[in-house]
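Lecture notes, unit on protein representations.

Consider one protein chain, 209 amino acids long.
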Amino acid sequence: LVRRTRAAMESAYSKLAGYEVPGGGFDWYGRAPAHEELTAYGLLQFADMKRVHQGIDGALLGRAAAWLASRSDGRGGFYRADRAWTFKNSSDDLRTAYITHGVAMAGQTPDPQALAHSASLARKSDDPYLLALAASTLLASPGKAEAGRTAAKRLLAMQQADGSWSGAHTITRSGDYGRVVESTGLAALALSQAGGHSDAVDRAVGWLQ
């Protein structure tokens, strides 16, 4: 089982790494220019995979993080390239929160202004999807854990009776069912990071199952 799993991981990693574009970052088809949201997701995915697979190229992670940093607009947000197959309907708040979350959760250092944007969302947003992204980002960032735990408590109060959360919009503008699934998954992860909310996490996981 271990041999088969390692072989599958190596095969999957080799295929996924092929979507890197010259200069760093990832695109739907591995062609430049890279895609900001997909790069944030790829960075998070490969950093997570590195915990169980020794073959991950650390330089690939570094290039992705450096490319995302180069896309900072200097005001806490990220430039939005004009290309096909992008998430054009996502708000600036959502894009910034999502990209910053990917950077922080991958163990990289977010842009300070982007991190401040997440801290603001953590205090003010009533959207569980945005709040879950912001809470996780703060919990993964040095010196921001207390703010992250406070955001997690706000998130806890938004859990529905069946154990789920329903965000306003996801990064992919999922429909009703997918939106609730994605919001609940992110909220459960954020509460797990914060600690002390095992009952709420269990109810969320039960709903997801």
